[in-house]
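Hi team,

Filling in the usual template for the complex we talked about on Friday. All components are listed, including any nucleic acid strands or ligand strings, so the model treats them as one assembly.

SUBMITTER: L.P.
PURPOSE: interface mapping
COMPONENTS: two
RESIDUES: 1039
SEQUENCES:
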Amino acid sequence: MDIPLEKHKGKIRTVELRKESPSGLAIGGQDCLALHLFEGSYPNKPVIAWEITDTDPSKWLGDVRKPYKDVLGDPVGWAKMVREEHGAKIICLNLIGTDPNKDDKSPEEAASLLKNILSAIDIPVIVKGPGPGEKQNDVLAACAEAASGQSCLFAAAVEEQYKTLVASCMAYGHALVAETPIDVNLCKQLNILISDMNLSLDRVVIDPLTGGLGYGLEYTYSVMERIRLQALGGDEMMQNPFICFIGDEVWKVKEVKADDPAWGDREKRAILWEIATATSLLYSGADILVMRHPEAIKAVNEAIDDLMKG
Amino acid sequence: MSKIIATAAIRGAHKLAQRAEDELNSAIAEHSESAAVSLPGTAYYLPIIYSMLGLAVQSLGDMKKVLARARSLLPEVPSENLWLPYLGDALDAGMAALFAEEIIETLKYLTGPPPAEGIWLGATSDATLRNQGIKLVDGRMPGFAACVGALPSVEDAVKLARDLQERNILVFMAGSTNGTSMADQLAEAGIEMNWDTFLVPYGKDITAAVYAAGFAARAAMTFGGIHPAGMEEARRILLYNKERVNAFVLALGEVDDEKYATAAGVLNFGFPIIADTDIPQILPSGICTYEHVVSRTPLESIAQKAIEVRGLKIKIEKIPVPVRVGPAFEGERVRRNQVALEFGGKYTHAFEYLRSKELDEVEDGKIEVVGPEIDDVEEGSALPLAILVEVAGREMQKDFESILERHIHSFLSEAMGIMHVGQRQIIWIRISKDAAKAGFKIRDFAVILRSKMINDFPSIVDKVQVTLYTDEEKVEALHPEARAAYDKRDQRMGEMTDESVDTFYSCTLCQSFAPSHVCIITPERLGLCGAYNWLDGKAAYRINPTGPNQPVKKGECLDTVKGKWKNVDDFVYENSNKTIKSFSAYSVMDDPMTSCGCFECIVAILPDTNGVMVVGREYGGMTPSGMTFAHLAEAVGGGQQTPGFIGIGILYITSKKFISADGGIKRIVWMDKELMERVKERFIQRCSEIGEEDLIEKIADETVTTDMAELVEHLQKVDHTALKMEPLF
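RESULT (copied from the run log):
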């Protein structure tokens, strides 16, 4: 029996990260729905980015601090560890220390850290700012300059504040994450605004905003489906790969933090929570999953390998 | 184009080309044709030449080739009796002049004197360009001013520099007048000049002005991602500058041939020239967005004039009033015992009125309070008030007046400690004691209104002046004009028909939850949520061209009765994720418009009656169809096309186009009481228009019945027209 196949006229753009390095990565490029290998071509596997932070992440739960206990507060060492010991293909440097309400580290400090990390490891780096505001603009602009020509991925441009980051990425040859709050229209509008500034959409990755399992996962799931269907249907303003920031959403929820013995072993439960959230979003089309716990990452990586066998 | 300008520019370009050639020849004699030349710190070679010709100049020999190209661009100086050299020739000559100037400046790096010496900075590195360019691209710097020449006095120079700095405009300085340059004058006043202070002295020679043009050309290559090669790329680089690099030239003092030539060169980039002297003007738009050359501009207003001519938008970072302003304070009430001063309500006569004027009739930022201020009256008293807001803008239209005026409410409410209720002539405003204690004055209303109008509507508002009348007599004197304007606006909206316009507006605001729903807003059928009429759609598109309200050209009419147009169908199909193939504006039966879920009322057919019922959102009871509003909403919402059911805005009920394809208002057999109360006045008027004065009496509501059989009985008893009309299906 012939299986009826869906042929799409649109195709997701390929975003190249750290293309100058032999360990550079290409993201996206498929012309079918998530993991529908039978329907089209899927040139690039979804990847998991290991999240590391610029200062000791004191708010992280003990369970997810433990695997990194020797490198917390030493971001360069941390980056090397995930690269060398765990075979990370990409990392996400979360600049929590630059938050004006936390350590308020200077843009120059962040920029020099990024430089050090880029010389310590040869894989692509996602640079995540402290969140919208004056400070994020300054931090990401300084980092973009410091990493000139290394095609990093900067997070994130939002509707209220995208121009400085777009300009920085144009000037120094980087890609950026366009973040909108679980909304198809806003997602499209932000992409239009970004491309109106002349940044090529080959350098844009969509963050649809992640809700963790039990905390809006289904909203993220369905908005990703909607965006993808529209993209594959031919809407050029939506044809971009997805990034989902899993770790941050998962490791703060009650079910992961609670020590209730009736709910079973906490560490195991937390890891499963991260796995469940990540795999669900893998099915809705995530191309980059930003995650924390080594065991969760290992399990999801195995799932990706398995699914990509076809 | 002015012959005087064209002739002078061509003459100047010849002089500059000659000078470049002489200097190049002596450089070649001293060094050799293969001697390397470059500008420091750039990968864009000689940026103007590279961007326009795609030629990478690296040696003196390369310069020779460029000069030959410049010569070929140079037209003859027009003779006395030739009357048409004009624009094209002058622009070519200007471009040739820029090539020559770039060569002259670059040669200075080889043969001296070095361009960067003393106060002068010379060429800009790519690193600085990126750093500063980001601010230009993201809008923190609205643009740059290339100041050529000098001002009459040091004080004038300082004032101009401050005027530009205050607006975050980057200032480039080059050239001189009678041996003095603006930068010399600023240096004399002890003003610090560098990239950090936004004051950049390039060089005293007029040729140094080419660095400003080079900055612009490199911005297009860096931020526009355009790689130079030939004419097409050159054109794109120039257009990028016209559209995105908001630069202008201030020609200060006497303008000689070389300055004219340089000016003609930058006109190619779409940068207009504003002069303080009496040179000929070039006013029509073409190469520039608006005027090309504006002269005799008084020094005290030259910065403001330049902003207007280039169309710069300056954002007001913090509204300068003594209380906080933000949406968080919008719903705030000020209670009786908290009142410092109040206006309107039942106490005094107050109204607000916004009108548009010509650009030269409005002085931006002008604020006047005519009558007593808050300090002149006792705490707790009430004053009359007329708020007169006058706006001007290149893209402003009369139709936008009412939309801007409606925003006075939210703008004033957003101030902490200020209560604003109502609109037009039914306003009521209170200033709280806390706000008064913080120093809030009546004039601060004007400060808030101007700042918000400029910030929130940059695409239509360029200038705002506000007058606040608190003098009883003045308030009364202005009132008739305001009242006449309100009436005229209402009348205009009332008179507009779908046939009188060629464009409708879409609304896809709700696609986040109703992915296949598209609203088509026409003059006679407003958005189903009731919040957007046709004018709102038009204005919203102007204000936010990438937003959810897009213009839809009607195109060929496929069915005048049902209201189907080819382009509208195509638009709806494309934007409904290819689910809705066709759409009727005036029918509930045939391809009716879909609904998101925000409709104010639902129209549903009642087959047994050969008519329809209209149910309002507020009505919680049962209807003759056997379904409540909530049940009906399920059948109507979510972007489905369900013949027999539509969601509508209340005002559509009394529109001439209300389901006109199906017989119109005469089909209504049942409407809930509360809804009928709301539309009654217009409904009666509409009934008399169609000669069915008694229709309103025949329409049943829940007090008559919610049972279908009883309804049919009632309709027969009152002899409702619907029973005798053509069958609905």
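MY TAKE: The mean pLDDT of chain A is 94. The two ends of chain A are 19 Å apart (CA to CA).

Thanks, L.
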